[in-house]
Inverse folding.
């Protein structure tokens, strides 16, 4: 095992640990929920709720995409 292989192994372990910390499966479920809510015609009649959903959705997607890009 070379130094590079050990470094890659440590990095893989770190990314796995970060995935647990990020709770990626729960994050993906919440993104799906908010996406569904944002596609509902009823939300467009409540501008305040629509703004909150879209803000939360953008933040969660950014968090998700950041983690996925590190993999």
């Amino acid at each position: 095992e070379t130094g590079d292989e050990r470094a890659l192994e440590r990095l893989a372990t770190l990314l796995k640990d970060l995935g647990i910390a990020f709770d990626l499966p729960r994050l993906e479920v919440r993104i799906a929920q908010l996406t569904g809510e944002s596609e509902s015609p009823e939300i467009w009649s409540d501008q305040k709720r629509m703004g909150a959903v879209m803000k939360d959705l953008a933040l969660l997607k950014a968090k998700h995409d950041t983690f996925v890009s590190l993999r």
Remarks:
- The radius of gyration is 17 Å.
- The CA atoms of residues 44 and 50 lie 6 Å apart.
